[in-house]
Design a protein that fits this description.
647 residues; 14 helices
Length: 647
């Protein structure tokens, strides 16, 4: 039987528990395990690695002992680019537990769930600290210059106040005329919210309002203001400390793309190898959508033009004068994959190599609509835009029950109803096979341009709780433009509502709610890079801490009344940051007696109804690692060493 969650040993791969996040092959890396005293006496701790698929065990020693826990430490030799490891804990009674990223287990765990240290180049440091704001350019803001632009034949003009058409052939053709200069005119709004990254959906010309059907990649759509408008926007954003990321389709082009036109016109054209074309004119497209022919990455010439080197599409736009700060890669999960062909790893690795050569500080995020873990090992994409680990579980916990027409493309006739435990389990399950640093640079989006708006089906009062989870769980919080205005939408197309700038004051309360939560994230580094330790997981309430050496943030997310007792955390110095829940350092039960959990004397938190509350606490008192990747003797004066007999 496993102990209560607040009494379980903990490790998560974060800097508090690992001596370096950037190991090289051959490095000795030190890893730590925090064992609460309430777990019981421990006879031994070992790590189990699997270099070259042959298990290796290394003993751990005690390096620190405080009022609540004992810290064990072991040394790992990094022998493979992806080095997996787990902890094996033997208690005094002879029972054994295994700790992996999937959690504590009383049976042997899978290699796929091991903690991971990877030797690939790390993501830029700013990625984990990012607060992202997503803009669909056609619907955000329209500059005065838009009035003089001649519309293409595909466009069906709409007035700014018209409701988006979200069904039928006019859906991709409805054209509002938002442009890049319009976005630049409203960067003060992003500053007010506290966004640090502006993510733009595609800016290359296409034959739709979404532009995922690009017909060229060497210019910005003139309908958005052209190349010069992108330069102006990036410069204006950078002047405010806001980075700008573009959106790129490596899986397909549009059927009007110059490459595809050339491929179909001449069987000897080099572009013919860019696609899956047959002799009868047939071709493979994305999910059968004829306007989106799929790219064939077996072509060296396609790689040269698109992703290989500074003159490629990937490289060109990351350099001045455009100077984008990274890419979000559309449909990355399908890119390079078709039937018995799988070139995805080659594509992502070459894309990262070009990105690092051109702009080492650029971020690569990849869309993967389901389980992204196998592609997120750090060899290519830095993080995932995925719905499985965060978005869908949070919706299922905080949405009203009842029939639905849409749920992320999954065949649910009614809104799924999760417990808090299922939310925590899903978050763990779909991140367990990722390195820690990939978790920090994956996106926690409540909704996007491809989804219904969260608030459309949310329970009353759920927005602060959902938004709070997005800023406090590991990952990049994402606001899709319009969320802060309280927009609703039945599906992705319906959610692409133009921003009513003339009525901003009508949405003051919701905008400030978003600004307050995003400010919490920016002002407390523990919420960006701190370790994650669960203290309570119930049907209606989740309680966890994000911890650094110099700061701890305690987080409560509840969808109903909560009365929680927990141990293993001194809350006597807790300072409430946001929310209204009450906390007692010396908890007492209803009888007035000291409250306890199975893990011992407890603190107590009580809240009413929907609630998101955080508290600031002192940091962790664990000793500083003696160096990055450098072995150190156990009697180093920087360590606090305690013998096993004292534990």
């Amino acid at each position: 039987m496993l102990p209560p969650i607040d009494a379980r040993p903990h490790h998560d791969g974060s800097p508090l528990y690992v001596s370096t996040q950037e190991p090289a092959l051959g490095d000795a890396v030190r890893v730590r395990l925090r064992v609460p005293h309430s777990y019981g006496h421990v006879a031994a701790v070992k790590t189990r690695s699997n270099p070259n698929h042959e298990p290796r065990f290394t003993p751990a020693v005690i390096v620190h002992h405080d009022d609540s826990a004992t810290w064990w430490e072991a040394e790992l030799l990094i022998e493979n680019p992806i080095h997996g490891y787990r902890f094996i804990v033997t208690r005094a009674d002879g029972s054994t537990h295994f700790l992996s990223q999937a959690g504590l287990s009383d049976i042997e765990t899978r290699d796929d769930d091991d903690f991971r240290l990877v030797t690939f180049a790390p993501p830029p440091a700013w990625g984990a600290e990012a607060v992202m704001y997503q803009v669909f350019p056609d619907r955000f803001a329209r500059s005065s210059a838009a009035d003089s632009r001649e519309l293409p034949e595909w466009a069906e003009p709409a007035e700014w106040g018209d409701e988006p058409i979200y069904q039928g052939p006019s859906t991709p053709r409805q054209f509002y005329g938002g442009d890049l200069d319009g976005i630049a005119e409203h960067l003060d709004h992003l500053e007010r919210l506290g966004a640090t990254v502006l993510y733009l959906t595609p800016v290359f010309p296409g034959r739709s309002n979404h532009r995922y059907d690009a017909h060229r990649f060497d210019q910005v759509d003139p309908l958005l203001g052209g190349d010069e408008a992108l330069v102006r926007l990036v410069e204006a954003a950078h002047a405010r400390g806001i980075r700008v990321m573009g959106d790129l389709t490596l899986n397909h082009s549009g059927d009007a793309h110059e490459w595809f036109v050339a491929a179909r016109a001449n069987s000897d054209a080099p572009e013919r190898a860019f696609y899956y074309l047959d002799d009868d004119g047939g071709y493979v497209s994305w999910l059968g959508v004829e306007s989106l022919p799929k790219l064939n990455w077996a072509s060296d010439e396609l790689r040269r033009r698109f992703i290989d080197g500074p003159d490629s599409v990937v490289g060109r736009w990351l350099q001045p004068p455009y100077a984008l700060d990274g890419w979000r890669i559309d449909v990355a999960n399908m890119t390079g994959r078709l039937d018995d062909h799988d070139l995805n790893a080659e594509v992502r690795q070459l894309t990262q190599a070009t990105t690092r050569a051109v702009n080492p500080d650029a971020l690569l995020l990849a869309e993967s609509t389901n389980d992204a873990q196998s592609d997120m090992q750090g060899d290519g994409w830095h993080g995932a835009m995925t719905y499985a680990s965060f978005t869908r579980p949070v919706w299922a916990w905080l949405s009203e029950p009842g029939p639905i027409n849409w749920f992320f493309g999954l065949p649910y006739p009614v809104m799924p109803q999760y417990s808090g435990r299922q939310v925590a389990d899903a978050n763990t399950r779909f991140t367990a096979a990722m390195p820690w640093r990939s978790r920090l640079t994956s996106m926690n989006a409540l909704d996007t341009h491809d989804t219904s708006r969260f608030v459309t089906r949310a329970r009353a009062g759920a927005v602060p709780v959902a938004l709070g989870l997005s800023v406090s769980l590991p990952g990049i919080p994402v606001v899709f433009a319009g969320d802060e205005f309280g927009f609703t939408g039945e599906n992705g197309e319906h959610s692409r509502t133009p921003i009513p700038w003339e009525r901003v004051d009508d949405h003051e309360t919701t905008i400030e709610l978003y600004a307050e939560h995003l400010r919490l994230r920016r002002e407390h580094p523990a919420l960006s890079t701190g370790s994650l330790r669960w203290l309570h997981i119930g049907d209606d309430a989740l309680l966890f801490v994000r911890e650094l050496a110099d700061e701890t943030v305690l987080v409560l997310a509840a969808r109903d009344d909560a009365d929680i007792t927990f141990s293993g955390l001194d809350v006597s110095e807790a300072v409430r940051l946001i929310g209204s829940a009450d906390i007692e350092a010396d908890a007492r039960g209803d009888s007035g007696a000291e409250a306890t959990t199975a893990a011992g004397p407890a603190a107590r938190i009580r809240s009413t109804g929907m609630s998101f509350t955080t508290w600031a606490l002192p940091g962790i008192s664990a000793p500083v690692f003696p160096g990055h990747g450098v072995p150190a003797a156990a009697d180093s004066p920087q360590w606090s060493v305690v013998s096993r007999s004292d534990a």
